[in-house]
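User: Show me an example of a complex going from sequences to structure tokens.

Assistant: Sure. Here are the input components:
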Amino acid sequence: MLLFYLFIEFFKIGLFGFGGGYAMIPLMEQAVRKHEWISPQQFTDIIAIAGSAPGPIATNSAMFIGYQTAGVGGAVIAAVSNLLPSLFVILLLTKLLARHAQTPLLSRSLYGVHPVITALILYAGIRMGIQNDLFTTSVDTFQYAIMLLAVILLYKKVSPLLVISLSGILGILIYG
Amino acid sequence: MLLQAKETDGADNYISVLFGLFLTFMRISPLAFGGGIALIPHIEREIVNKKKWFATEDVPNVLAVAQSAPGSIAINSAIYIGYMVRGIGGAVAAMIGMLIPSALIILGLTYLFLAYQDLSFVQSAFQGIRPAIVGLILFAAFKIGKGAIKDRFTVLLFIIATSLLFSLSISPVFLIIGGALTGWLSHTWHPKRS
């Protein structure tokens, strides 16, 4: 039954994750919360590990969540069901594009979807901050400083792996 | 006899192209640090220049399809190129090639994390990493928003979606479908905008 839910949820996440891997994080957060598969803090840690490994962050987190809830079988089910919608939609798109050079329906719909995705990711980021005690009054300034530093470094096009490693080292220096 | 020989030759060729796609994407995959779009130059070098599977003019199509379909841009690019080169078999071969290296790395990291997460220095490291991840997600919203929010209509849609999320715990899937419908309707009413 667990594998069945993993399949359904990750298929849904794959189907509605328009706009790249980060678009799937809010959907994943919702599924994980609904089924209580892992704690919010574990979810943040998973994004940290998925983001520091090469390869797509969404598939990485899907595999990690699948593995932690149902072992290697769970990892495989989560990854496969997360990928199937991409496979179907691309085959369909390629057929459509070959027949009608431009399908305005798609670009028009995406024009409305992308602002919503932006809101979803922003919301997921803020929720994640709240769950990690970032936006409470008792938080120490180091936490804000690391968050700001991460944003600035990413803006300067420093790779996520480097940003995550650096903040890990800062964590050991400050809290170790 | 001759025909038979030809057929096996064709099958061999098919298998070898699939294997070639698999190996090529396996080589590209570990370079996919920091999002799918960073992958495009590597795809261009391997697929267009080295293997000549694709013409340079077709590279923008890769990005267009990969960004229009749901899912990771890196995976979607692999699926599209594989499909264009050798049909559904090619799509699956390229996708699996793209996945295997990161799957192995993530399984290794998962194992390490589960084994050592209770060590005190790992815990302090994660205390530093967690706010950085929040920054990473907020930055992702900023990056997608920069391209997505470009006129009055999209600003309004963004504000409505954000306030719905913060006031009611509305389902993301419902919001995404709503966004698609309003985007489509807005263009039907104002055809000039497309």
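The lines above are the inputs; the final block is the predicted structure for all two components together. Residues 1-116 of chain B form one domain.
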